[in-house]
Write a structure and sequence with these properties.
Blueprint lengths: L1 H8 L14 H10 L5 E3 L8 E6 L4 E5 L19 E5 L4 H10 L5 E6 L2 H9 L4 E4 L1 H4 L6 E5 L8 E6 L6 H21 L4
Parallel strand pairs: 4-5, 4-6
Antiparallel strand pairs: 1-8, 2-8, 3-6, 3-7
Length: 193
């Protein structure tokens, strides 16, 4: 989002924008209350009062440089036995999906974070391995090893708008251009099949 936002604002010097990283439930609340015109979140897309657009993305595995798993073409849950997993906050939909995929695989005590960027920074420093969304990993491709995960975990997200929101040409343009930017970035990165 920061990369896209910088590009979007280049020819709009008078546009005020607020970019805030929030848990998905808080994003939904901000959009519902009118505090935000648009939000991006993880979560079910069957809530009344909202308009959703979704993207499904397969989660990938982020591994520290030089780690023994970096040589594998694809990572399985069993490959992660005995490893420290840097995971997203317990209770999020994505965290639950990861736990289901990992099943009974024994791991070292985990490290829990609230933001993907924090997880990837910790991977870069060798603190553990993360199962992560590919969009978050784009800025780390030169500092960590990224591999496909053998189990599909949906790491996609939703664009969230309120059905009661005031129509806005600039918000419509932002949303349209964001999806185009996002899809092109994922295709160019090779992280999204």
């Amino acid at each position: 989002m920061p990369r896209f936002l910088a590009k979007f604002l280049r020819d709009k010097p008078h546009l005020h924008v607020s970019l805030t990283g929030l848990p998905s439930t808080t994003v939904m609340e901000a959009v519902a209350s009118g505090q935000a015109d648009i939000g991006y979140a993880d979560g079910p897309s069957e809530r009344p009062g909202f308009i959703f657009e979704t993207r499904s993305l397969p989660a990938i595995v982020a591994i520290p440089m030089g780690h023994r798993l970096g040589g594998l073409a694809k990572i399985t849950p069993q490959d992660l036995a005995g490893e420290r997993i840097i995971k997203q906050e317990t209770g999020t939909l994505f965290a639950m999906r990861v736990e289901v995929a990992m099943g009974g695989v024994q791991r070292r005590p985990s490290l829990e974070v609230s933001l993907s960027h924090t997880a990837l920074s910790l991977v870069r420093e060798g603190a553990g391995i993360a199962i992560i969304d590919p969009a978050a990993a784009i800025d780390f491709t030169d500092a960590i090893v990224l591999r496909p995960f053998s189990v599909f975990i949906d790491a996609g997200f939703l664009e969230v708008r309120s059905v009661y929101g005031v129509p806005s040409t600039i918000v419509d343009r932002f949303a349209s251009e964001f999806w185009s930017f996002h899809d092109a970035l994922m295709a160019d990165s090779g992280l999204w099949n």
